[in-house]
């Protein structure tokens, strides 16, 4: 017996396009919820070469897909190729989820934003300074999320000032009324020390990348350290912050949060929260 989007022929299909895509943990999350809810559906990894997204999109509705998610390097192409954008996707200039509508048109959504926010429910950042490390695609969702929590003084630390300028231009509408500090790494420590929340949205600290050059010793005692990297999920930054007794959140929390939003759209059902602990064990095995 199946539950879910009965307006679509079964099985309900969704997937992730990327290059490479084999490493992704997203299928594990969706398949876990599908099984738990008894939905006749699948979430598959689709290795799509750079430059091939338009051709992949052409077959999507015909193949019976309810939607797709995108990881590197396809997020930009997805933004450009969909027929409509949700307000969040438009505001962020980024699409990570594409929904096939009943009429076959494609809607671009950004689930990174609610995903980032999921572990921060009820946090009020009004009047607080926050520091975001990085200014790539994911940083857009992180910054917009922090604005949504009330932050109005946001320091953006990035290697290339051009990258910061481009990002801030893309999300300018989201930043109305915010005091933005554009900074390089030499200022990171001082800015982080004055911040209630520090989020890493760079690739630094990821497996195979250099470590993030930030000491936690001077952070506030009530600082929250959020590192959105998923591989490894316990980055050196998070380990150091936890050892100092600070509140921390990792990239798997965001990954599950963003998958939850996509799952609702693909399969028309609410992912059960009562399996979160079991899911986390699977994801960290
Ligand atoms: P982008 O490539 O768009 O951005 C990468 C960022 O990292 C840029 O700010 C870039 O700086 C910086 N960076 C890269 N290498 C270096 C370096 N050697 N020294 C200093 N800065 C560097 O990637 P995304 O924004 O898409 O992803 C960023 C991270 O977030 C990745 O680790 C990704 O896995 C993770 N992520 C996690 C998600 C989750 O659900 N948990 C969702 C999406 C992303 P510059 O502008 O100067 O190049």
Termini Cα gap: 30 Å
How many strand segments? 12
Provide the gyration radius in Å. Answer: 19 Å
H/E element sequence: EHEHEHEHEEHEHEHEHEEHEHH
- Helicity level: 25-40%
Structural summary, described in words:
This protein is α/β, with parallel strands linked by helices and 285 residues long. The chain folds into two domains: 2-111 and 258-271, Leucine Dehydrogenase, chain A, domain 1 (Rossmann fold), CATH 3.40.50.10860; 114-253, Rossmann fold, CATH 3.40.50.720. The protein is 35% helix and 20% strand. It has eleven helices and twelve strands. It has helices spanning 26-37, 53-60, 75-81, 87-92, 112-117, 137-148, 161-170, 188-193, 236-243, 251-267, 276-284, and strands at residues 12-18, 41-47, 65-70, 84-85, 97-100, 106-109, 129-133, 153-157, 179-183, 197-200, 224-227, 247-250. The relative contact order is 0.15. The mean pLDDT is 95. It binds NADPH dihydro-nicotinamide-adenine-dinucleotide phosphate. NADPH dihydro-nicotinamide-adenine-dinucleotide phosphate (NDP) binds at residues 112, 115, 134-139, 158-160, 163, 201-204, 206, 210, 228-230, 251, 254-255, 258. NADPH dihydro-nicotinamide-adenine-dinucleotide phosphate is lined by residues 112, 115, 134-139, 158-160, 163, 201-204, 206, 210, 228-230, 251, 254-255, 258.
């Amino acid at each position: 017996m199946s539950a879910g989007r009965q307006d679509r022929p079964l099985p309900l299909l969704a997937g992730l396009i990327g290059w490479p895509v084999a490493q992704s943990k997203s299928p594990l999350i969706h398949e876990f919820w599908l099984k738990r809810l008894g939905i006749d559906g699948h979430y598959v990894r689709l290795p799509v070469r750079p430059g091939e997204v338009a051709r992949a999109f052409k077959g999507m509705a015909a193949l019976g897909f309810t939607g797709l998610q995108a990881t590197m390097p396809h997020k930009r192409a997805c933004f450009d190729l969909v027929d409509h954008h949700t307000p969040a996707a438009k505001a962020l200039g980024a699409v990570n989820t594409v929904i096939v509508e009943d009429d076959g048109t494609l809607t671009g959504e950004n689930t990174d934003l609610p995903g980032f926010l999921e572990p921060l429910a009820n946090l009020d950042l009004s009047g607080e300074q926050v520091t975001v490390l990085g200014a790539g695609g994911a940083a857009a969702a992180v910054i917009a999320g922090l604005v949504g929590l009330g932050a109005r003084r946001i320091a953006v630390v990035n290697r290339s000032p051009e990258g910061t300028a481009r990002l801030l231009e893309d999300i300018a509408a989201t930043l109305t009324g915010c005091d933005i500090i554009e900074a390089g790494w030499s200022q990171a420590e001082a800015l982080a020390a004055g911040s209630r929340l520090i989020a890493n949205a760079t690739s630094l600290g990821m497996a195979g990348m250099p470590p993030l050059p930030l000491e936690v010793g001077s952070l506030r005692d009530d600082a929250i350290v959020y590192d959105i990297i998923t591989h490894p999920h316990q980055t050196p930054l998070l380990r150091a912050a936890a050892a100092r007794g600070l509140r921390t959140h990792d990239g798997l929390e965001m990954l599950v949060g963003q998958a939850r939003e996509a799952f609702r759209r693909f399969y028309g059902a609410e992912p059960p929260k009562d399996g979160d602990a079991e899911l986390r064990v699977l994801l960290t095995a």
